[in-house]
Amino acid sequence: MHRFILSASLTAMFALLSASPVAIAQTSPEKGDPRIKKALDEAGMTYAILGDQEQFKVSVKLPNKRKQHVFINSETQQVGGLEIRRIHSAAYRSPGAFPLDIANQFLMDSNRKKLGNWQTVLDNKKAHYGVFTMKVDAELPASQLVKLMMETLLTADNMEAELTGQDIF
What we know:
By secondary structure, the chain is of the alpha+beta class.
């Protein structure tokens, strides 16, 4: 009898403990990493915070009358004691695998970059996207985060214009 009461008490306690952080997270009025929010606010940039991943979407009108979207992940990963976040912007979409010349162009351009590279990302419909990605220190000063965000979106926009001549992303 005592074992059952202890077991039931522990089960109830663990249920309450595991439920508490979820309840706190759901009632939190703030979404997204405040470091990203601060950087974008200081730069006077308009943004949206998307989905459960709390990904920041910034749409930038460029001087060449083009527009490009860039995304900054709130989620970070630990690598060798550093906290790393992902900044990315799409440049190309294919219904299947990339044509060989396009894939090679992404690889050759990645080789020329000092920071960032091209990645293939698949959506749930098996479409392939050529996405330029920078993985950066999550503790970057606001001005450096914005500079790297702009470099990411300009790299993607230039490639999109070169490959397609269109302004989709």
